[in-house]
Prior knowledge:
Layout: E1 2-9, E2 12-19, H1 21-38, H2 51-70, H3 72-82, E3 92-97, E4 104-111, H4 120-123, E5 127-130, H5 137-150, E6 153-156, E7 166-175, E8 178-179, E9 185-191, H6 199-205, E10 213-219, E11 231-245, H7 251-257, H8 263-297, H9 304-324, H10 329-335, H11 340-368, H12 374-388, H13 392-402, H14 404-423, E12 426-429
Parallel strand pairs: 5-12
Antiparallel strand pairs: 1-2, 2-4, 3-4, 6-11, 7-8, 7-9, 7-11, 10-11
Helix pairs in contact: 1-2, 5-8, 7-8, 8-11, 8-14, 9-11, 11-14, 12-13
Amino acid sequence: MQTSVDRIDTHKVKLRVEVPPEVFGKDLDRAYREVAQQVRIPGFRKGKVPRKVIDVQVGRETVLGEFLEDAVPGYYREALRENDLAPIADPDLDVEQLEEGKPFVFTATVEVRPRLKLEASEYHGVEVERPAVEVSEDDLGRMLDSLRERFAELEPVARSARSGDYVVIDLRATIHGEEVPEGTRTDYLYEVGSGELGAKLDAELEGKRAGEILKLNDRLPETAGERAGQEVAFQVLVKEVKGKKLPDLDDGFAKTASEFDTLDELREALREQIRSNKERAADSEVRDRVLQALIDRVEVELPDTLVDQETEHRVLHARERAERLGVTLDQLLSAQGLDELRFRADARDHAVRAIKADLVLEAVARAEGIQVTAEEIGSEIAGLAAALGREPEEVAKGLDRSGQVVSLAGDIIRSKALDVLVEHARIRPEGGPPGDSGPPEPSEIEIAPRTVEEAS
């Protein structure tokens, strides 16, 4: 198959494809066989109707339509691969020659994804600051408080309920007086402020005492299964209020909550854990800063179609998230002090940044000759399968069927390209003078690639 590409606009190309007559002929024969299987003509067995009879009885145009629908997409995809083009919209196809015994010729005019070319000198030596890592007493105190919360005991209290308390409730949900089992619970231990049954219930429970009855209308939570999001009437009987009794912060607590014998040993271990967490966060921030610095260096004009698609993907994702919470997108945005116009503007800004990031990393990957191995893809699939609680083979088949293996491979390549950027970056301590820099140890750097659903 012969192909040629003519650029007719900044982001639009005209792809000319010439399919050899022997290949075209086989695919046209296949189209005739498909049509023969679909029609019934007296005197001929199904699937055995001669071509001339099909042309007369059915029409050659029907066969050519079958051929164009079945074979041309394959020719088109192969031509895209040969010319390393990534379309961002459906093509406008134009058949130039369709005669048996001659090459089949067609053109595809299509908008394509931009392609950057970077030299090593353009992406080596990016200079950024690494956030300082310090562990304060407040950090340690919050970690200890969190640990004490895990070992807290509940005890009945005579006061009204506060956020963080637990209440024992009888919850009854109804629609027009008919009980909804998915929203009805008896002697249910519920944490006030957890949001498990909705923010409205949490707000109503605060300040209430044992024996009080609440009535409110709200939507069923996600835990209600297929009925999640339905509007119901709730009646709630508060039967008991329980507060948390935190354990004393002493050596006994250290022995109960950890493998250490003393509180001092526990505090030191937690201090190191906090430091390690902050080091990882600083490494991640360095990666973001290095990538952003390179994005700021590069000028690239993005096609509106590509930006619009990415923006709509983000809006759709937000809309689906709102639906899972049982509200509309407008309601979710309103709770955050936003409207859809402002949200779309922000989504568009993020879309532009994400697209530029991908283009930059892809350019680095090409310049460095970065490839992805079967072992790396297998490792990523194994990690994804573990997170989903499924078998790797099952996840691999699903990704292959949906075509998302390509997206997964792209994530790995971009991650490796970012590794190269960080390896060659000039990283100085935050607040340090320019020039006081050096690359971090590669082993300290990690990346969390985008999810498969979000990968482009």
